[in-house]
Amino acid sequence: MTWTILVLVVGILLFLFGGMLLPKTDGKKPSAGNIVMGKCINLIAIILIAGSVCRLYMPYYLTAVNPLIVQEMVNGMQEQQQAEKNKQIRKYVRSEGDKMMRDAPVLGNRDAKKTIYVWTDFSCPYCRRVHGELERVLADRDDTRVVIKNFSIHGALSDGPARAVIAANMQDKDKAAALTDMLMTREFYTSEDLKDQSKLAEKVEANVIKMAKEAGLDTEQLKKDMDSDVVARELRNVREMAQRFDISGTPFLIIGEQAFPGAIPAAQIESALDEAE
């Protein structure tokens, strides 16, 4: 701003007193050279003044006169970034879809033609909300499957449930889906559990195991599988893809070849599925 004002002052002074810079002549009339130089000085002065005034006026115009244009610019940049992200997703999903599904729990018709990948966390209230929206979608159509990518980001509240559903998938895919639904629709820790953080992971895991038993899973085998290489591989795969797609929070959905951060409603999910190949 200071430099802009300084340039404006220079431009005004140059316009008013630029003639003093011209060489003096003995004749009464200015020479052709002086006339040309004078016009050049005036032109430079006008350019400096006009540029400075525009630069000074632009912030006022954007914030006071037409603030919507700023939002339009931001929206345009976001759309461009999203389009680039979708392009990267399209390329990766087409080449690595089998890897993305290999160890992950799946809801709905496993042989469906259309796939939704959801980065989710059982302790995230928005993830629970979007789980309900996904269940509504699956209830209405059998051409869709939901691949659960358990993004363990909330420490003890996330880790045990995430490892449990992946381990459950190793044992029985239908029961793994049932356990996923239980963990998304019921509480697996209490306010009392939160008071002692040193034992929180232990208490959460115990509560999850109770749900697993209710789902009909072999809990002893489940405990062993929770520490298996398969579970570690899937959690690593989730983190690597989150980094690739710049996923910093949950929920995050990939529907077809489009990315949707946040808890989007069933209608939007349906629309994206209809657009998907």
How does the SSE layout of this entry go?
Elements: H1 2-17, H2 32-65, H3 68-101, E1 106-108, E2 114-120, H4 125-140, E3 144-150, H5 156-171, H6 173-185, H7 191-195, H8 200-214, H9 219-225, H10 229-244, E4 252-255, E5 258-261, H11 266-275
Parallel strand pairs: 2-3
Antiparallel strand pairs: 1-3, 2-4, 4-5
CATH architecture of the largest domain: 3-Layer(aba) Sandwich
DSSP summary: helix tally = 11
Strand order of the largest sheet: 1-3-2-4-5
CATH topology of the largest domain: Glutaredoxin
Into how many domains do the coordinates divide?
2
CATH class of the largest domain: Alpha Beta
Q: Which regions contain 5 or more consecutive residues with pLDDT less than 50?
A: none
The main β sheet shows up as: 5 strands, mixed
The computed structural class is: alpha+beta
Q: In percent, how much strand structure appears in the residues?
A: 5-15%
SSE pattern: HHHEEHEHHHHHHEEH
Number of strands: 5
Cα separation of the termini: 52 Å
**Inertia-based shape:** elongated
CATH superfamily heading of the largest domain: Glutaredoxin
Mean pLDDT over the residues = 86
Summarize the amount of helix as a percent range. Answer: 55-70%
Whole-angstrom Rg: 32 Å
What does this structure look like?
The chain is an alpha+beta fold. The chain has two domains: 2-68; 75-275, Glutaredoxin. It has helices at residues 2-17, 32-65, 68-101, 125-140, 156-171, 173-185, 191-195, 200-214, 219-225, 229-244, 266-275, and strands at residues 106-108, 114-120, 144-150, 252-255, 258-261. It has a five-stranded mixed sheet, with helices on both faces. β2, α4 and β3 (144-150) form a beta-alpha-beta unit. The radius of gyration is 32 Å and the shape is elongated.
